[in-house]
Amino acid sequence: MINLGIIGTNWITEQFIRATDETKSFSLKHVFSRTEAKANKFIKDLSKKDIQVSTDLDEFFSSSDFEAVYIASPNGLHFQQAKLALEHGKNVIVEKPSTSTVREFTILDDLAHKNGLFLFEAARQIHEPIFKKIQHYVENNRDELSGATLSYMKYSSRYDAYKAGELPNIFNPKFSGGALYDLGVYTVYDAVVLFGQPDSVNYVPEILDSGIDGSGSLTLKYPKFDVNIIVGKTKNSYMTSEIYFNRKTLLMDSGGDITHVKLADDDKNITTLPTSKSDNPMDSEASEFARIINENDQETYEKLLKYARIVNRILEQARTSAGLVFGADEEK
């Protein structure tokens, strides 16, 4: 197993560590947190022992007890932390979106290649068997492909606090918050992996007083069809996501957390596609990242990097088209 350090002690970090345990892919050795108490509680909740704790990033990355780091801090902190990791010779797994700007992603990309390291953007859903089933269907029916509507809207657990006058990171432009970068990134990954790079991008958001998008509608234009994406953190939606193949339509229960896929035709015949899904949605990506590192699978790695480059470019183009400004835009 690959020795692992982590940044962040939230629910998604816990889920990733449980995935590494289940798949025997990485072994947790070191935890970085702003407070020692938080780190120790996190370690205790996971029933781990003999785990090092750091509250200083330089000390953390100078440690020789791990070769890869998983970063799940607020979006606006990803770049500096990932850059520091690569400068210290660590392979990086960073939650999506890995950066706030194309400039930041290019710096990390170049640094990883220069130092012979791996840089993974953790787009978990594209590694899951259920997504692979969708991808297989799209590839085998590409001549009939005629567009898609992808939806991912969830009322944020932090939105009530925002409405009460607080400014949670996820609603703060300083930390690259908002619906597009938090939930839209899932659907943009869906589109890029399934359909490739679009010709043009346009985003129409509902902008909150803090300056970020609470929800929005994103259009990706391809040569022969459009992909319409609906995202939001200020409301819930229960509409399916759909991929169109003229007379047939693939129906997915979500554009982000896909658990069921059905195929419908114009006679209203609906067939559920047989799929498998792990109890932990991060199992597949944990296994795949470890496999790529262990086997030095450069072909698969470069394919994932290509997806990440396109996704980060689309996100920046989308928010630029809508006039959304992040704190990272001011850093040159």
TrEMBL record:
Gfo/Idh/MocA-like oxidoreductase N-terminal domain sequence ranges: 2-119
Pfam families assigned: GFO_IDH_MocA (PF01408)
Gene Ontology MF term list: nucleotide binding
Top-level division of the source organism's lineage: Bacteria
Name of the molecule in the record: Oxidoreductase
Organism: Companilactobacillus alimentarius DSM 20249
